[in-house]
Amino acid sequence: MMAISKVTNYRSRVPARGVRVSLEYTGFFQSGFTSNYYTNDDGVAYIEHASVEKVTVLINGNQ
């Protein structure tokens, strides 16, 4: 079953379009990165992933 996380990104209080977002997950059974996703006109990226453990959100490759 896939999980979906919603990430919203703003620049100067305005939704940021086209920002690259991915998740880094580390856990006992799984570790790795999701594919890259990009924010839409509302500054939102919906990221599909298999892990339900703690993740680090990466914005343009940075934490």
Descriptive notes:
The protein is an all-beta fold. It has one domain. Helix content is about 0%, strand content about 50%. The chain is built from no helices and eight strands. The strands form three sheets. Strands 4, 5, 6 and 8 form a four-stranded antiparallel β-sheet that branches. The radius of gyration is 12 Å and the shape is elongated.
Compute the number of helices.
0
Q: Which structural class fits the helix and strand makeup?
A: mainly beta
SSE order? EEEEEEEE
- What gap, in angstroms, lies between the N and C termini? 26 Å
Into which percentage range does the β-strand content fall?
A: over 45%
Number of strands: 8
Overall, the morphology is elongated
- Helical coverage, percent range: under 10%
What does the largest sheet look like?
Answer: 4 strands, antiparallel
Low-pLDDT residue intervals, each spanning 5 or more residues: none
Our Rg estimate from Cα atoms comes to 12 Å
Number of self-contained structural domains? 1
Roughly what is the average pLDDT, rounded to an integer?
Answer: 90
Oligomer status: single chain
Compose a concise summary of this entry:
This protein has 63 residues and is mostly beta strands. It has no helices and eight strands. The strands form three sheets. Strands 4, 5, 6 and 8 form a four-stranded antiparallel beta sheet that branches. A two-stranded antiparallel ribbon has the order 1-7.
